[in-house]
Specification:
The chain is built from ten helices and 21 strands.
Amino acid sequence: MLKITGAKVFKNGEFAEGDVLIEGDRIATASADESAGDVESIDAAGLYAIPGLVDIHTHGAVGHDFCDGTHESIDAITRYEASRGVTAWCGTTMTFPEKKLAGIMHCAAEHVDADDAAALVGINMEGPFISPEKVGAQNPAYVQQCDAAMFRRLQQASGGKIKLIDIAPEEPGAYEFIDEMHDDVRISVAHTCADYDQAAEAFRRGAKHVTHLYNAMPGLHHRKPGVIPAALEGGATPEIIADGVHIHPAMVRLAFSMFGADRMILISDSMEATGMPDGEYSLGGQAVTKRGAHATLHDGTLAGSATDLMGCMKTAATAMGLPLEVAVRAATENPARAIGVFGERGSLDAGKVADVVLLDADLNVAGVILRGKRIR
């Protein structure tokens, strides 16, 4: 048994000083019998104890991309994520032809997580069913209309791992796709030119999510409200990139004020330059330059982020002024609920997978317990 003592433990949306008991790879109840065997203690006085972070939108890190479609790349990304306190993630695809996507899905289906690596709990399929007018850093050559049969083939190839599928609802065939698929996968409005009425209809039909709020969609306007108010009224869960580059802090605070702490989700949207020095990298087959926290195509278009989810959570809670409790919830419980894994992850409740991250007073990672074993 492992016992973390004296920490400020995050449970039920708040911090309270206490202990965390771990038995095997699971969080144990406070009444667990500590006399049943050897007990290893970790003195966490002065530290925060939070659940492992869950990043449902990340493309890569440390020079590797999920779309490389290799176990080597997945291993490198997952080990980096775990070292940063991100203990579960959805590998995120880009806009590619079906054959390329099928290879990525097959690799993910076969992958076995290493002992010191974050768990690959799903796939976020960001392309190719997006608007050709809002591609962002996606490759416009492979954009296509929604195709339910194609999605089903890819879902079969992935072994059922696709948790999120992104679509532009204004494109031909999108509403029919939502009607057919909304019970089988979480549908997200993304890379879209949709107006308010088009987006509202998508949420009415069963879309439940919004990809990187504000980015690659029409902005808020008092006569052309667009996607964001439709998502608010439609009960959708928005994800947002709080890396300090993509969105002004005031707009991040506004989003949390509008949607509430129980719906907002922090994501990294990180790409292979994350955790790497400045230089030239790639995303979706397109050249990307990293300078500090900025990752851009050569025309200046933002190309994902160069910050992992722990860095985004820290930025949200410090430079952006969100309460720490709100930022932690948006990086743990809310994403876990959105992709249907909250029964296993996203909180420190008894019976959950024992993924625990220790943070110091400056929100730096001081320790990581992954599936019951300390890896950092």
